[in-house]
Write a structure and sequence with these properties.
Blueprint: H1 2-22, H2 30-45, H3 47-50, H4 68-72, H5 74-83, E1 88-91, E2 94-97, H6 107-117, H7 131-135
Antiparallel strand pairs: 1-2
Helix pairs in contact: 2-6, 5-6
């Protein structure tokens, strides 16, 4: 009889826990997922000029690593990636005056690469850049 009761309770508990876990969906982290996608975009479109470590090329292409400009000028940075950029900017106290052509990225790709570069090489930004935010930025 005791064996029968133990089997019954084991089956009942097993059924209870399985029903709870069958409906469980793991939580995702949208920022981490965006950063992962952004890393691939950076490799394809940005790394040639800004280099694998984000340090850029002195006096030619500004650094993204520990970049005061990038972190303090969110909208301008998004606009630069989305539409390209030319003219003078000051990054970490150094003046740059070169042209960056628009890489032809979609709004979601711009958001992903922004999330990657603002969370790499000493930059930290927990305020996720979204496709909707990028879509509102005009030339």
């Amino acid at each position: 009889m005791q064996l029968l009761l133990i089997c019954f309770f084991t089956l009942a508990l097993s059924s209870f826990f399985n029903s709870k876990t069958d409906n469980y969906t793991p939580q995702t982290d949208p920022l981490k997922e965006s950063i992962t996608r952004g890393s691939e975009i950076y490799t394809d479109f940005c790394m040639n000029c800004h280099l694998p470590n984000g340090e850029g090329i002195e006096n030619t292409f500004p650094p993204l690593a520990k970049s005061d400009y990038l972190m303090k000028n969110r909208e301008k940075s998004i606009r630069g990636i989305k539409y390209g950029q030319s003219g003078e900017i000051i990054v970490n106290g150094v003046t740059y005056n070169s042209t960056m052509v628009a890489p032809g990225l979609s709004d979601d790709e711009v958001a992903d690469v922004m999330n990657y570069i603002t969370n790499s090489w000493g930059n930290k930004n927990e305020n996720i850049v979204t496709e909707e935010e990028v879509s509102k930025i005009k030339k």
